[in-house]
Amino acid sequence: MNRKWIFALAMCMYVSSFSLFCQSRPFDRFKSTTNFNSDSSDSSDDDDEGSAPSEESADDSYSPSNDDNGSGDPSASSPTNSKDVFGRSTGINAVKKGPEAKKLVQLNPETAFGPEVIESFNFPNTSLIELTETMQKLTGINLIYENDIKGKKVNILAPNPITVGDAWKAYLSVLNMAGYSLSQSGGFYKIVNNRDIKSENTKIYTGTYTPDTDNYVMRVIPLKYISSAEVTRNFRPFMTKNGRITDIRQTNTILAQDTGSNILRLVKLIEFVDIPGHEETLQIIQVKHSSAQEIAKLIGEILNAQAAKNKNKSSYSMQQENISISKIIAEPRTNSIIAMANAEGTQQLRDIINKLDVKDVTTGGQIHVYYLKHSDAEELSKTLSALVGNAKAGANRTRFTQSPVVSSDTLFNSDVKLTADKSNNAIVVTAAPTDYLTIKKIIEKLDIQRDQVYVEGLIMESELSSSHEWGISWVGAYGTGDTDRAGYGGKNRGDMANLLSPSGITSIGGLFSGIGVGKKVELTLPDNSKKSVRSVTGLLTAIASNDNTNVLATPQILALDNQEAVFEVGEKIPTPKTTYQTNGPSQTSVDYQDVGLTLKLTPQINKISRFVKLKIDYKMDDFSTRSLPSALEPIGMAMNNRSAVTTVIVRDMDTIAMGGLMKDKDIVTNSKVPLLGDIPVLGWLFKSTKKEKSKTNLLFFLTPKILASYEETTADHLKDVVNRRAAHLKDIVGDDDPFATTNKGLFEKAKNQKEGPLYNPGSTIQDGTIKSDNLEEVEDVPPQADATKLLEVPNYSEIIQHASAIKKAQNEEKN
To answer: Domain of 124?
Structure first.
């Protein structure tokens, strides 16, 4: 009896110790209850292996539990073939040898799909490293992690059976709670910190699927109706701490990087609000009484203020409640406003426009008066009337039909009439307010101050006779190698250096100063001194001093840009005029013939290149000494006519030369012995007649100079005064100009006024730049102000004292 009790007690102790041994090995809990081995286990196959299971076999075996061994006998669950609380076989019969020993569970780590069931997933107070290594052995996934995850504890309480997929989701959840996520890198998965996830290779999903896990992924979400900017701004609070949401406005798409489960929640929220009615469409709103450009400008200011309030950087955007307005453009041709807005935004735009688009009672109804400043009322009225007439002609047809309907191609909405008031130099416009605004803008662009051109000329004749083999056909300065020389054309071309020597200059009479300011050429005189002459006009003195030249006129004409100017000098010569009558003798009367010089010029200024296009019409008439037939001598005189019509382009302040207008002149000289030469017939023995034929060459030179507006002229004067003042102060106080700031500011102001878009910021005062690096600009310098008053200094001694004090202070600082 005692032996039986002792044997029974020993068996109980054996079973209890073996059960505790199995429970102390957590990996045995993951043995699946699903049989996924190719052949079933048989307890009889392993009876020869001994009564105790091998530790190595127990650790590495992934064989399923042998619930169904075919015997149907409950006694088959012997101590050597029992199961632990997780459903794993604890007996030696569950261990397989060979290739079947290490089969893993089925799992997709991205989608967390794993259909196999484990009886529990209980990890109370377990280190994250231990859980990670356990999951790696169960799934066979290659993992990379840093040592910073050591020491982190997690708690998973899942005593009931769950699938492998749910166990994997639980593992990803505890990773996320600890601040980590998985990122695939080739055949490995890295455990990375969530704060660095934005730079990691997260999985991108572009369709409708997103895994429902707590691992970070990226999802592309296209929107149909609602604005991506609206979604980004309103849904950003729903993102996790390290999640991000970005809007792509060009395609109305958002990019979300967050956990898969949170992105699924975000998609559900977006689907709820992304419904018709929020999408933007193109809208055209007609403006009837006001200017579409003015109204669009006002609305744009409102939208920009709203955008600044919402910290939105877009130029035209309003996002408030359900209102969306992204773009507003004024179309002046049809006086309409084009907008990109949703239904609510369009309605708000129409409400604002209806309140602004009202009749202006201050415009005087349909009649408006515009006083011109620079243009002629009659000429401008003709131009505008032609414009209005063409617009009316286009109102009777469209691009697609010839039916008499008003199309959007017309410029005006109603009839427009224009009348010029010559006495007040004004234009009276009869039109609707919107049409008058269009006319007014056209008038403002045409009624501008035009520049003028001052043309200085010289017209002269050079005589050629038997004693002179040539006449002057060209004069100018030219270069020979590295030396600039001046000379005149003809048979005997010579160096003009001797002419320009001191003795030569004093011996020259006539027009020494020339007529223009063409390009300068520097010459070396025999005494090694330098002399600058103009390329053309500097040599006209030599021509005028020649006995065989005759200066006919020196015209000086001031003409407006694109307007003809006429210079005319001459006289009226009475000439006999015979009238023959049918019945009775003929009668002789006096007629007056105009003879002289007529010069017509039409300048056209290119304000960018500073070139002048000149249309020249020159004509010269005089009486000829040519003999007429004897029958015509009592009643008529021969006339010489020389004319030239041409168009040239010349740079501002350069000189052009024209010549080659020739005429013949017959000179008859009679010499005789007094008294004897007057005897009929015999007198031929005491007199002689000499006939000489000569030719005269007509030359004329023109030099145009552009005279800009009053402001530019004042700016030129201002620059000249500033430069002279700077040079004067430099001689007195050196480079330390106490008034350099004012000087620099005035100079830059003058440069901007004169040069406009061609202003060169590298231009300097005098011969060098101002050395001060912190010069302040002078503001509000009126262009019409007197430059000398702006630069007046009461006492130069104060300037010197001020400069000395500055130098003294600088020296003290250095010491």
So the answer is: 109-193
